[in-house]
Design a protein that fits this description.
The structure is a homodimer of 644-residue chains.
Chain A lengths: L5 H6 L2 E2 L2 H7 L9 H22 L5 E8 L5 E8 L6 H9 L3 E2 L15 H13 L3 E6 L6 E9 L4 E10 L6 E9 L2 H18 L4 E5 L5 E4 L22 H10 L5 H8 L5 H10 L13 H13 L15 H11 L7 E6 L3 E3 L2 E11 L10 E6 L2 E3 L7 H7 L21 E9 L16 H53 L7 H8 L1 E13 L19 E13 L4 E8 L5 E6 L4 E2 L3 E9 L4 E9 L11 E4 L6 E2 L2 E2 L4
Helix pairs in contact in A: 3-5, 3-6, 12-13
């Protein structure tokens, strides 16, 4: 072999176009096999449709239609929305260029981020079928629809308009994408269905229609008319920024002075904070921005971390909320009739300056299989994640919790636990750190893992509490039945046999039981017209419709030998408003009701009732009850009050 | 809120530079946290150094030096090689542009593929420290070294030479990269060490020196002087190509006629195959390439799959080889003293037209923990994969095998099994389908998963055989000791007590044992000068040095009551050459030795010996022995011969 030199090697060096790169690495974009290609195509188009509708405040109405293509393993996927449409000059860029989009430079929560997704679909379509994508867009009621046939020039990463025409479309506004792709419909069908179903669960404001090649039509109806609060765009937070980025922002800034640079380019930088930062960095706030040296930038960067700066505003996030997660899980598991559903959410926080928030839900018991791994449902910015479970920080966080401490079965305290449970985790962020452009798994960012773990532990502790309560109640219930049902029968019978008066059993009963027994019953009533408190609720649109009232009755039995006096608390579920309470509580806050219970005589019971508005049927299975001023070991059905 | 329209949304649409994209998504490149950033930086630089050296046939001598930076959490990483250097005009492109490189368009196995790795390191350095990278390159002994300080303009994705100078460097040729990075050395140290150690294990021809900030120096010595066979560049194979790519290649081809296009742009397309393909596609081989319509391309594409086309040549791959894997595992586990090491490799095959090959190794027993998950060692194109184990097809393949059938402990037949084992998997390919640009995990490509599973099953069956053999031998050994040691003692003692002659025990022994007992012993001898067969071996360079001879002695005991006559086979390990055999075998092939064993009388034994050259000490622990023409149930120590 002739010896090669650096010059020989240099000849081979070439630029790689980003489109070529992704064409070669199509698995990175979620097109690794024919099943996945189908799901990814639908997903990218639907995500875009949802984002577009929400951007302009339209309730999404999305149709996904798959038909057989002319070749075996070829499908035609069409996705149509009722969004604002796309101005015609932008179509070739949005669908024909990778890394082109509106959301990359904006710091706010949205499904699309990178400007890759939908153009990757067009690229995949062209790569596998050699055909063009067809895009239809109507941006105003009195305008025609623009129909564009599009190809991608991968050497240049540019969209080529092959054909452009105008037509009539019987729709106010909207977009339709049609792509022929190489895909396996038979195997991919189930995943496509799951993706759409889970999307509809987590986006109850969207109506999604799915038409299969044989004409079968699935309609996932809208279950809410409220468009999620639009997340606001924010500027970067100084504490999350890298030194290099700081220098870059300064280079591109229009500000002339250091102080105005700090105030205009970042959030949370008021005049006072700006002065403090400059002081700490030993820099004159009035100095010219262009005069700053690398060392001075470094001092500034250090000062950001030494001065207390307000957290970034969190209206850039749009979490699902616990009550919606609960409702979704309820819907998802209604055939399983689970024992309980628990949710938890963490306050928003940030990783590397990117705000994020974690919400979790846990379903336990019912017909869920006891001997299998628990099921994990992962969501990021309201998009279900179907693949790459093993490589996702959500899974890792679950695996790294010792669930044995919380009553689940888990070998050596690591790995996915076994047991009758489903765990749902939603991460909302201005930038979800996906492990790759296929957006199937979240990377292992320590801050995110920790937040997921904290949220899961809240859930887990509640699971443990539920299980403990259940076990304790079960033990006492046997006694209870014996005492309240069988003992009186025996007494009556023997009294009648002996022809003597029925003895008073109360002292015996209280002696055997020796507890306060609390039970609660929940009923749902429909009332006409909405309760007065409606303005506190999100759902104004339901004002004049029939409304649901949740009625709780709490029965407190004193099975102690002496009269008992204590305090009882009932926690008001998130999203609920108190409609009426009887008897009048001694305190009523937005979070709880508090009754001072005075001297229930032995073997007597009292009833407490309260009605809540603002919940849907089934939102609550049982009340969170707590007691104070009594030894909680003497109480079944309520825990020790740890509140203020 | 004022209603937004498509025009409002259009204003936000912007191009995203690829450098900006990766800057924002630095976790995708392996810079997700400060520990990983350290390892990725070292990895990218070392991978490049190894590739460069191998490209020109130089034995790599690589120095990795980490020193503390001026700031807390800042390190200076320097990686120096003795490769061919880089011509000075190319430096700013190779280190300063993402998606620029020599390997992307070439179909052959190499560590680097995408032209992202090292420029991502420079990008990360700049992002986190605001400083420049320093690159030194010397391409010829009598030339000075070029020293370049480099920045990246992320808006344009171009390298900016900040400073360029010439200097003297006391080195024939070579490259040095120095980057200041934000990293956590304390936590990252162990991973950096593991990466370099594993790299050295799998690249025994490389010498790697690792100098830590406190001056501690680790030298991973070269254990072989043979540079791996350079993989050859090939053209794409027609059967793996997508229709879109076919059309694109045709567009860019210089060929005028269809037939010459097919012959020049693809492998395995000889004149005959070309004619057959054209015939099947109903196309005139002499037609002008530019005249082909999309439909005709489609016919051509279909025809590729209908005609038998030779597999692509596999010299584009450079596997590790089983004997080297075995040696590496031996080295890796020498403190564990495992019971056995098993390797398996599959023939090369292809996914989507990309040739690939799977090799696996399995270590069992010894001091490996019995109650923990087995350890998995993953390699791709001779590069160790440290992170993202859960998201890798290698892990998935292991999890999807029911290891319980092979004697390992695995809950419900799924997941990573528990037991005293280490599994090593190496995937070699012209294009490793990594799940993301951080190159930490292989995507789930069905073909690759299947090959890994097939290779693992071969290993697993051998594990099972070993365990079964061990159990059976153990059972019989107790009898054996009783019979061959204790029984004669008793006979002697009782004879002397009774003053009678010692009885002949043979009939008793054979009656109790009733088996053929085969044992083998392996010794290693060093001989001077190399055995004659040396030309068959790879290692010519060792010709005149001392060589290792592996001597096996097989003892065959007949503990059956009658004389026994059967055939015995000894398999010759891969890479070994037979040096001498005694007694002369009845057949000797490159794969096995075969003896016809004639009538061993009861209670007698015979010895068979053979010496092998070409192996290193410890390459073989025990021989693979098989028997024929006898009921294998009557034999301990050899299995039934299933060969031809």
């Amino acid at each position: 072999m002739e010896k090669l030199t650096a010059h020989d090697l240099a000849k081979a060096q070439k630029e790689i176009s980003v489109a070529e790169f992704f064409e070669r690495n199509k698995h990175i974009l979620g097109f690794g096999n024919l099943t996945r290609a189908l799901v990814t195509t639908i997903k990218e188009a639907v995500d875009n449709a949802l984002d577009a509708c929400e951007d302009v405040g339209i309730l999404p109405d999305i149709i996904v239609k798959v038909t057989n293509g002319e070749d075996e393993n070829e499908c035609l996927v069409a996705v149509e929305d009722n969004g604002p449409g796309i101005v015609s000059e932008q179509i070739k860029h949005i669908f024909g260029r990778l890394l082109y989009g509106s959301r990359f430079h904006a710091i706010r929560q949205s499904r699309g981020q990178q400007g890759i997704g939908i153009s990757a679909v067009v690229l995949y379509s062209q790569l596998t079928t050699g055909k063009h994508a067809k895009i239809m867009s109507k941006i105003q009621e009195n305008l025609p629809v623009v129909v564009i046939e599009l190809a991608i020039d991968t050497n240049k990463n540019r969209g080529d308009v092959i054909n452009k025409s105008l037509d009539h479309w019987d729709k106010t506004t909207g977009t339709r994408v049609e792509v022929p792709i190489h895909a396996d419909y038979v195997r991919g069908r189930r995943y496509a269905y799951d993706y759409l179903r889970n999307t509809s669960i987590i986006n109850p404001h969207a109506k999604i229609t799915f038409v299969e090649p044989d004409g079968t039509t699935h309609i996932f109806e809208r279950t809410s008319d409220i468009i999620p609060k639009k997340s606001e765009e924010i500027k970067p937070h100084p504490q999350g920024i890298e030194l290099g980025t700081l220098i870059k922002i300064a280079k591109n800034s229009r500000a002339r002075k250091l102080s105005s640079f700090l105030k205009t380019e970042f959030v949370s930088m008021g005049s006072r904070t700006t002065m403090l930062v400059c002081e700490k960095a030993e820099l004159d706030p009035n100095m010219n921005l262009t005069d700053l040296t690398r060392n001075q930038f470094q001092n500034l960067h250090r000062a950001f971390k030494q001065v207390k700066i307000m957290a970034p505003p969190m209206n850039c996030l749009s979490p699902i909320t616990e009550s919606l997660i609960r409702r979704s899980l309820k819907q998802e598991t209604k055939e399983i009739s689970p024992e309980f559903i628990i949710t938890a959410s963490r306050p928003p926080t940030a990783y590397a300056g990117n705000p994020f928030q974690v919400e979790v839900g846990l379903v336990y018991g019912g017909n869920l299989p006891k001997d299998e791994q628990i099921k994990i449902m992962r969501f990021a910015n309201r998009v279900p994640l179907l693949y790459q479970q093993g490589g996702c920080i959500i899974t890792q966080a679950i695996e790294n919790i010792d669930w044995r401490r919380y009553g689940l079965d888990q070998r050596s305290g690591k790995g996915i636990p076994n047991g009758p449970a489903i765990i749902l985790v939603h991460v909302a962020s201005t930038q979800i750190p996906f492990t790759s452009e296929s957006k199937e798994a979240i990377a292992d960012i320590t801050e995110i893992e920790n937040e997921i773990k904290l949220a899961l532990r809240i859930c887990a502790r509640n699971v443990e509490r539920h299980i403990r309560k259940k076990v304790r109640r079960k033990k006492t219930r046997d006694k209870f039945i014996l005492i309240t049902k069988i003992l009186p029968e025996i007494a009556k019978k023997s009294a009648s046999m002996l022809d003597r008066p029925v003895p008073i059993l109360d002292p015996v009963i209280t002696k055997i039981m020796d507890v306060i027994w609390i039970e609660d019953f929940i009923e749902f009533e429909t009332v006409k017209g909405y309760p007065v408190q409606t303005t506190l609720l999100e759902s104004n649109s339901e004002k004049n419709s029939k409304s649901m009232i949740t009625k709780s009755t709490i029965a407190v039995y004193n099975y102690k030998p002496k009269p008992q006096k204590f305090t009882l608390f009932a926690v008001i579920p998130e999203g609920a408003v108190v409609w009426s309470v009887s008897p009048e509580p001694s305190q009523k806050t937005t979070h709880y009701l508090k009754w001072k219970i005075e001297d229930i005589p032995p073997a007597q019971k009292i009833d407490l009732t309260f009605k809540l508005a603002g919940l849907q049927k089934g939102d609550v299975d049982e009340n969170d009850l707590y007691v104070a001023n009594i030894n909680p070991a003497n109480v079944i059905g309520a825990d020790k009050w740890e509140g203020e």
